[in-house]
Amino acid sequence: MQESPTGSLPGREAPRPEGTGPEAPRPEGTGPEGTARRPRLSRRGLLTGGALTAVGALAACAPEKDASRLPAPGAAAARQVTGEGSPGQGTGRATAVPGGVATEPFHGAHQAGIATAPQTYGIFVGLDLLPDTDREAITRMMRLLTDDALRLTEGRPALADTEPELADLPSRLTVTFGFGPGLFTAAGLEDHRPESVAPLPSFKIDKLRKEWSGGDLLLQICADDALTLSHALRMTVKDARSFAKVRWTQRGFRRSPQTQDPGLTQRNVMGQLDGTVNPKPGTPDFDRAVWVSDGPEWLRGGTTLVLRRIRAEMETWDAVDTVGKEFTVGRRLDTGAPLTGQREHDEADFGKLNATGFPVISEQAHIRRAHVTDPGMRIFRRPYNYDEGLTEQGHSDSGLLFASYQADIARQFIPIQKRLAEADLLNEWTTPIGSAVFAIPPGCSAGGWIGETLLS
What we know:
TAT_signal; EC 1.11.1.19; Dyp_peroxidase; oxidoreductase
């Protein structure tokens, strides 16, 4: 049976100290124990207009001791690191470690969560706009969601946050927003939609399911702490649901920075190193491959995302021996080195033949089919593993949330995917079951909001 917030059972009132019951007189305009009564600021009221101006009203009306509980960016978390305050003495907060208070910058030319070093946990949420959500409503939604994301990533509670204590440890939290094809239609801005931000062509390997595909709005939320992530998800979706309904939620994970050096290539659930040939953030090759520099002016400094949910057929993959797995991929499983090399980042020699005259790296090997010679035409992979547990038969329901960022989907992603769909040996053990595409707007400066280049 669920307890009430006061710890009493439903339908029962918690015992009150003498003289504090409902009949006890209070000075006019005060709340319990004579404190100034704080006006209730409903979330619905914030969503229906005046959300941003209400912030100032809230601060002005708050009692002094309540205002002190709304920390400056990272302040509450900093108190935990330095040991100020102690568990059990009113804070109810565990002592943090440096990773818990770490933050990623929110403002900038690009949204965080793309070139950012991948966090341990990621959640992708696809939403469909409600029928009456027009351009003006989308604008209000994005202003509110931007404010939520800014606060939470800085270690501050979101506006009207009902559990502000859970915002104290940002743990490198990032919130990234994307616009699906339907958002442009709803906003009356179809002529501003990038041509390549459209449903992908059908590939013969696809077995797409509606519950993992499509979407008008994307929330990509990543952090190194699962509780921080859960809180950020709930706060942002609560503010979005007056404008949109959730279409799908996909949760993923990687090895944490405390487990493996973040600079090393991560492994997927099939045991393969995933992302060896990724362009390196901060380099000219990365900038050319990922950030939009031509096309719609509003998207300059942004990018595009293809999110593919790829189920791993683990039962049959487990039956393949190491030699067969390495032949399929074209790399050694232990080191990630191409079959023609010694180290992970050695260039693959696709012309090298074995003693019988056949290519050492098969014509159908995954790395050959995915190979791109022009660095600017590569994609940037930022994948997460997923694991939904076991089926009734005890089989693993797991795979990869393949997140691909590129400046142009049609020019970069689709040619690679066509080659893979035609003849990749790995297709025998992987099945795409979800697919969605989004335009990722550029970042914003202080005082701005995500999407303003399109909607304002």
